[in-house]
Amino acid sequence: MEEMRTVKLTIEYDGTEYCGWQIQPNGITIQEKLEDAIQKLTGTFCRVHGSGRTDRGVHALGQVAHFHTDSEISGNDFARAINAYLPKDISVRESLEVNSGFHSRFSALEKHYCYIIENAKTRPVLDRHKVWWISWDLDFELIKEATSVIVGTHDFTSFTDAERKDEDNTRNVISAEWKNENNRLTFNIQGEGFLYKMVRCLVGTIIEAGRGKISKKEMLDILDAKDRTKAGPTAPPCGLHLKKVIYPEKFNVNNK
Amino acid sequence: MEEMRTVKLTIEYDGTEYCGWQIQPNGITIQEKLEDAIQKLTGTFCRVHGSGRTDRGVHALGQVAHFHTDSEISGNDFARAINAYLPKDISVRESLEVNSGFHSRFSALEKHYCYIIENAKTRPVLDRHKVWWISWDLDFELIKEATSVIVGTHDFTSFTDAERKDEDNTRNVISAEWKNENNRLTFNIQGEGFLYKMVRCLVGTIIEAGRGKISKKEMLDILDAKDRTKAGPTAPPCGLHLKKVIYPEKFNVNNK
After folding, report:
1. Averaged over B51-74, what is the pLDDT?
2. What DSSP string describes A101-142?
């Protein structure tokens, strides 16, 4: 029996119409669409393993997944071959045959997310599905101050909607920066891993700070409280994008 | 009888689902949606005059239009008031009361368009409705060379699908520049006015040059030929965006 090959996929998707990444009984998911496409292409069912879940309505520019196959299609050709069986709102942007030790989730070193806000009095149109439209006045300096509090290793219990209170909610935020171009605020956050809804809880709370409702001192207090009820609301999913997942150099996978 | 006020609108729209700007018998148009919204808001039908037509599927970030009204709504408040009656793919981004001499079409000095291309082996997702996806290899230097030919005042008969051959097809292209960021090629073109489908004919031909099929010398020959059949194909509408329309300073309208 031939040994199975491992193929890594880099996937872009518009999460608007999906119940998130992971297969579930009551709704269509990205994982399901990928498994269906690969089955149609190769004739065999293959489980597709993602680097992690994304929630209903969240987008990805560079979600990573892998699967095992005995198909003879070359690693680089899978992307376009799978795309022929995918809907317009999901696309495999890159495929690569990798070492059998590679695992999209367990090998991951870092994840990079971005969250996009359009701050304007009137609603945006062309990017309406991928930004959070905010018409309140925001103070960019207050946003940056509140953000500085969360960089580093902290217990982020105040910033997760997870219900399991007994878990270790310590995470390391490697960097968190805002860019302000015209009316477009982009939040780039990099970490070794994130708690359930953590980026959206952080953004929702930082925006409260940007409205002058939470000071930098209060932001510190919220972090220390380890209590979700002290933080701000969860920002809507449409602004959130999983940008990329970083893996160790030994796998020779493309980290650009 | 009170004098009618003149209101200028700056409009963003996603042209994907529309048969262009201008009202026509067999399809829904942006102009129609705006006139309907204003009638619902003010109780009176007002003709909405655009700065010019955009074709089926073409987008706008800053289309300009004006209308006359005796409504008491303040000029700045019209934008959000009209938006309450518009679908999600059309938004008035700004409204302003202007001098009665202002006319969105006849007062216009310049129009700025951009055309966006995603050059990648695999299809894009999140911006799929607003870019032309090209998977061919493109040479950016050849693109810039071909583009240099069209700047200035020329007879652009070779680059229009207009059928009226007796018209004066001389136009002045003030500037035409490409930007290349990652796989995203953005063409910014500014002119005093453009012929029917001129920007899309130019882009379609410049891309043929970028593929190595048309040299700079041949680009000059095509321009000189004044013959549409000599030029390249018309680029698809989805990549084209009317960015802004510029008016004389005397009107004190916002040209940012």
Report:
1. 96
2. T--TTTT--EEEEEEEEEE-SS--STTTTTSEEE-S---HHH
Residues of B with a catalytic annotation lie at: 55
Q: What are phi and psi of B216, to 5 degrees?
A: -60, -40
> Would the CB atoms of B91 and A120 count as touching at under 8 Å?
no
pLDDT of residue B165: 67
ipTM of the complex: 0.93
Ranges of residues in chain A with a pLDDT under 50 are none
Of A79, A80, A123, the CB nearest to B91: A123
Q: How far is CA B13 from the centre of its chain?
A: 11
Verify whether the Cβ–Cβ distance B125 to A92 is below 8 Å.
no
Q: What percent of chain A has pLDDT over 70?
A: 97
CB contact under 8 Å between A126 and B14, yes or no, is yes
Q: Measuring CA to CA, which residue among A124, A125, A130, A97 is closest to residue A12?
A: A130
The β-bridge relationship of strands B5-13 and B90-98 is antiparallel
H helix or E strand, kind and range, residue B155: strand B152-155
Longest dimension (CA), chain A: 65
> Are the C-beta atoms of residues B114 and B187 closer than 8 Å to each other?
yes
Residues of B in contact with A128 (CB under 8 A): 14, 88-89
The answer to whether A94 and A53 have CB atoms below 8 angstroms apart is no
Residue B141 CB coordination number (10 Å)? 8
What tokens does B21 get? 């700007």
Q: What is the pTM of this model?
A: 0.94
Question: What are the pLDDT digits (tens) for A182-201?
Answer: 889 999 999 999 999 999 99
Q: Which chain A residues contact residue B129 at CB under 8 A?
A: 126
Dihedral, A128, A130, A136, A140 alpha carbons, nearest 10: -140
Q: Are strands A170-181 and A152-155 parallel, antiparallel or unpaired?
A: antiparallel
Q: Name the phi and psi angles at A206, rounded to 5.
A: -60, -35
Contact A113, A82 (CB under 8 A): no
CA distance A136 to A211: 7
Residue B80 pLDDT exceeds 70: yes
What's the maximum distance between 2 C-alpha atoms anywhere in chain B? 65
Tell me the nearest-neighbour CA distance from B90 into chain A, angstroms.
Answer: 6
Cβ contacts of A143 within 8 Å, gap of 6 or more:
A178, A185, A206, A207, A209, A210
Q: Which residues of A are catalytic?
A: 55
Q: What are the tokens at B121?
A: 């082996």
- Tell me the shortest Cα–Cα distance from A182 to chain B, in angstroms: 11
The 10s digit of each residue's pLDDT in B187-242 is 999 999 999 999 999 999 999 999 999 999 999 999 999 999 999 999 999 999 99
Intra-chain end-to-end CA distance of chain A, in Å: 36
SS3 B231: coil
